[in-house]
Amino acid sequence: MSIAALLPVDWRAGRFLGRADLGEGPTPILIARGQVYDLTPVCPTVSLYPGGEVERGLGAIDEAEAFLAETALLSPVDLHCVKAAGVTFAVSAIERVIEERARGDSGAAVAIREKLEARVGSGIRSVVPGSDEAATLKQALIEEGLWSQYLEVAIGPDAEIFTKSPILSTVGAGAQIGIRSDSGWNNPEPEVVLVCGADGRAIGAALGNDVNLRDFEGRSALLLGKAKDNRASCAIGPMIRLFDDGFTMDDVRAAEVDLRIEGPEGYVLEGRSNMAQISRDPEELLRQAMSEHDYPDGFALFLGTLFAPIQDRDEPGRGFTHRIGDRVTISSRRLGTLTNIVTTSKAAAPWRFGVADLMRNLAARGLLARA
C-alpha cells in the first residue's frame, strides 16, 4: 500500500507506531521524519514502547514510501488488552434500544425507531450523562415505558466498558474482517481507538472497526460476547499516531471519522462519525476503564461511534447489513485510512499466533532479555 492509502496527508509532521512482519516475526516499527525504524533494540513489543524519540539512537531501515509499498502492516497493538466503550453517542443509544425492542428483527425496527426518536431523540442529545437532568429524563422515560438498559449506560453515571478482543487477535489494515456466518443483521462501527500504557495514559490513537452483530445483541444483551468477539471481528490501524505537540487529545475530541462501504454488487454507503458529539469525554472513558482494574501491558480502548446505518440495502424496511466481499474503508484526516474486506468469521484466516507463540518467537530472536 502507498503512503497516501494509509497515513494522513500530514504524516511527515507526525510519528507513527505500529507492527510489521519483517521476515522473522512481528516487529515494532516507527515512522518518523519520512524514515522507518525497527524498534526491537528498544522494545520487542509495542506494549513496551517507552515513549520519547527512541529512534534517535537507531539507524533507519528504509524510507517510509518504499517500505509501505512492499510491506503489509499488522495490527499496531500486541499484548494490549482490547476494550471498547459502547453507547457513547445519542444515535447509537437509540439504535441499541431499537435492537433490544425488535429482538434482533430488522424488519420490526422502523416503527420502533420512529417512536423512540419522537419521544427521546432531542432530550437524550442534550443531557449530560450522570447529571440531575439525566436522572429526570430517566424517570420520565420509565413512566412512559421507554426505559432500557442501553439508555442506562447512555445517560447514567456508568459507561459501558467491555472486553472486545483477546490479546494478539486483532487484524490490521488490508486484512479480511469477519462477521459471524449465522448473522443476518450487522454493520461496521468506525471508531477512534486510544492506545494506553499500564498507567492508563493514552500514548496515541488509531482507527478501528468494532464489528457489530445487531441481531445477536438485539436478542439479548447477554449475547454481547457472541456479537462482538469472533475471529477477525476487530480491526485496528493503520498505525498508532503518537501524541505530541502537533497531535493531542483535543485532536481526538475534534476528529471526524468517515466510512465508505463498497459492495460487490455496486452498492455504496457513506457515513460520518463526529467525535465532537460524543456524550462522554475520552478521558472520562479512560478513567472508567481503569477504575478498579489493572492492565500491566497497557490497553486499547474503542471510543464508540455515532454511525448507525439504517438505509435499506435490499428489501424495503430491512435496513443495512453486510454482504461478503464488502470493502469497508474508515478514514480520518489526522489518523489515516483503515481498509478491510468483509468475510465470515468461519472463513477468515484462523488465528494461530498466540502469546506462547510470540514468547517463543522473541526468545528465538534473542529479544526476551530486552523485555
TrEMBL record:
GO molecular function, one term: hydrolase activity
Alphabetically ordered keywords of this record: Hydrolase, Metal-binding
Domain Fumarylacetoacetase-like C-terminal positions: 160-342
SUPFAM superfamilies noted in UniProt: FAH
Sequence similarity: Belongs to the FAH family.
Annotated PANTHER family: 2-DEHYDRO-3-DEOXY-D-ARABINONATE DEHYDRATASE (PTHR42796:SF7), FUMARYLACETOACETATE HYDROLASE DOMAIN-CONTAINING PROTEIN 2A-RELATED (PTHR42796)
Protein name: Fumarylacetoacetate hydrolase family protein
Species this chain originates from: Sphingomonas naphthae
